[in-house]
Amino acid sequence: KAGVTQTPRYLIKTRGQQVTLSCSPISGHRSVSWYQQTPGQGLQFLFEYFSETQRNKGNFPGRFSGRQFSNSRSEMNVSTLELGDSALYLCASSPGLAWTTDTQYFGPGTRLTVL
Amino acid sequence: AQSVTQLDSHVSVSEGTPVLLRCNYSSSYSPSLFWYVQHPNKGLQLLLKYTSAATLVKGINGFEAEFKKSETSFHLTKPSAHMSDAAEYFCVVSDRNAGNMLTFGGGTRLMVKP
Q: Is the CB of B45 less than 8 angstroms away from the CB of A106?
């Protein structure tokens, strides 16, 4: 089975722009979770989608949004980019909801740099 | 609210010696606990998970962890370190009463000296 794929792998944007990141889960997985990883704040949960519905959301401003399509692929959007949004954005998929006993499988991440 | 504290940000061991990475958690319910490893420029990989079955959990690559409720700890150990174990390790807790969120510890960077 192919693993979790994220595109693009690297992205450079300027302040004020918006960006869309994509995540394709492992085939058959219905849950996709997004995380932000920075040196200062570590790994922080952004949100989780299951069967096209947002099931959980972390403590991030409304500039961060996401959606999930019927094939379980997910996109994350960040509007009005700020310098502090520079981070590695990780996507993880699992067969069921992330808090269950199902293992989450992580993608390699998208490295976003905001100038 | 749930939280995870990894007591050491960096741990250095010699190849062939034991590894101990410490993790304490705070949770209002019976938590699920995980350890993940992240190698440079790679995604996270699950090492092991505790989900209220046996308190001693065995994972991949010779790692294991013991859930101690009285101490609210979930320390990760390995009897003999290998050079390939050098990476960052994350302790993670999930708690139904915390909105089903996964909360990550700050990470421990493990260095293995030859």
A: yes
